[in-house]
């Protein structure tokens, strides 16, 4: 069915490899020539199976990473070990985290608005299906397609498609869970009450958008800060991530709708899609002109 090429990284519950579909099988299974395959030993397969089932249910949204199916194979390095594999869309553009890390001072206004709107479309679909992603962050936002550098693309057909990925922690809304997710992007109610409703994803989105704007983590932490200290700050103080004064009024207002400690006061994904920050037909400046670069 496919031949493993190289390791791409590690997801929540498995190793991710680049794979090349075999010519004889590609036409039968309608697989793309390049895929990403997430694998785990079969005794750990439950999380991958859950992710595969969920992605299959969400497959009709263009801003969610596509899943082509699952199967069991033998480990290439140890044929006695069976692996559970899910076949995923290959994100040739890498992750949003990589894009931020290679863009000192933050992303361009156009990219921030395009990426934010795309993530919101994906979140709206997830939430309407009754799920919560539970780990929205730049590492779990992937970029698919786009053969030309961003500045040279003349139309939307040449743009990257933004995809929400890694549903290993996703759950039905309303469940009481152990503390899950990545501390930097966790919502206060998830830390204090272990609550994971759709609004927890909106807080994480706000942290992600702020990171796109500044190019820096949303919470300023001294080197060596313990995770428990950050969780205490998020859950048991009245603080929220600081929005720089040079962010435009539209950008500030959008972030305030996401980064409000009372979860029921946060806007929904659909409400945010109607916000001027992402809905305007012209590009709304993200930064005030007086910012010094």
From TrEMBL:
CDD domains: STKc_MAPKKK (cd06606). Keywords: ATP-binding, Kinase, Nucleotide-binding, Serine/threonine-protein kinase, Transferase. The keyword Kinase applies. One of its GO terms (biological process) is signal transduction. Residues 2-278 form the Protein kinase domain. This is Protein kinase domain-containing protein. Belongs to the protein kinase superfamily. ATP binds at residue 38. One of its GO terms (molecular function) is ATP binding. It comes from the Eukaryota.
């Amino acid at each position: 069915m496919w031949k493993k090429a190289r390791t791409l990284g590690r997801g929540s519950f498995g190793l991710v490899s680049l794979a090349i579909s075999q010519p004889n099988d590609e036409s039968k299974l309608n697989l793309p020539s390049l895929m990403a395959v997430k694998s785990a030993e079969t005794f750990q397969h439950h999380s991958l199976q859950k992710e595969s089932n969920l992605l299959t249910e969400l497959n009709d949204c263009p801003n969610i990473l596509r899943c082509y199916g699952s199967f069991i194979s033998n480990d290439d390095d140890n044929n006695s070990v069976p692996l559970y594999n899910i076949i995923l869309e290959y994100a040739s553009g890498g992750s949003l985290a990589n894009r931020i890390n290679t863009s000192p001072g933050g992303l361009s206004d156009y990219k921030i608005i395009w990426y934010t709107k795309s993530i919101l479309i994906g979140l709206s679909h997830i939430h309407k299906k009754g799920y919560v992603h539970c780990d929205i962050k730049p590492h779990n936002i992937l970029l698919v397609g786009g053969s030309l550098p961003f500045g040279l693309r003349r139309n939307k057909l040449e743009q990257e498609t933004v995809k929400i990925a890694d549903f290993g922690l996703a759950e039905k809304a309303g469940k009481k869970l152990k503390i899950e997710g990545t501390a930097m992007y966790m919502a206060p109610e998830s830390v204090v009450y272990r609550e994971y409703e759709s609004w927890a994803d909106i807080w994480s989105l706000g942290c992600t958008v702020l990171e796109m704007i500044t190019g820096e983590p949303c919470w300023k932490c001294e080197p060596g800060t313990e995770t428990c200290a950050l969780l205490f700050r998020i859950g048991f103080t009245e603080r929220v991530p600081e929005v720089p004064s040079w962010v435009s009024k539209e950008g500030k207002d959008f972030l305030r709708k996401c980064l409000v400690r009372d979860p029921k006061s946060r806007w929904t994904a659909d409400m945010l899609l109607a916000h001027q920050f992402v809905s305007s037909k012209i590009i709304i400046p993200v930064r005030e002109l007086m910012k010094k670069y």
